[in-house]
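G., the chain you wanted modeled:
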Amino acid sequence: MTRKKVKLEYITNDSARRATFKKRKRGLMKKASELSILCEIDACVILSSPYDYELEVWPSPSEVQRVLAHFKEMPEMEQNRKMVNQESFLRQRIAKGNEQLKKQRKDNRLKEITRVMFQSLTGKDLLNLNIVDLNDLGWIIDQNLKEMNKRIESLKKEAQSQAAAAGQLNFKNEGKVPDEKPTFDTMDDIQMQQWLVDLVNPYDQIGFAGDDMMLPFGDANQNAIWPNALFP
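Predicted structure as tokens:
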């Protein structure tokens, strides 16, 4: 059974807040002790709470004073280099959350436009799309065409390598000179090759002219023909 994620906010219930404080305090002391032992470092903990009149320290008052004295002897720049207060910590969390939100929006947009692309292949019209949607759709189509071109080129090279290897084998077995280029057995093979080339190079028939026309999502899309409202 997975543990329920605790929401980081002030606990308004007094008894629940006191119980949480005691539990978390024991955990903090345990983690500090483990860190000090496993990594052989100087560590101390000072706690001030409304539930106790005196400060709580770990491991002992004398050890706390020694660690603090060592800290004060360090240059001021070294003291502040990794120091974090509540405000700076929250700013870091907010900035990280904004980056995650931005990335998620991009992913959702990519999935949304990809779904539109597949729906259009089934015959659904694109009349309800605006200029931004069409621009993003054009970019996705262009990227898919590039991937298809790469895959076809890879298959062509693989076929040529296999044909050359077969020719060398025939030459060794029959003493014949292998052909420099692979040959096709039937006209169907030639027509199929030409059909694939026409399929992945339709730039003359459609309104997308390549890299200068279709631009990617997000911050890199600085020269887009139309501004992207989702990714400024």
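The first helix runs from residue 14 to 39.

Shout if anything looks off.
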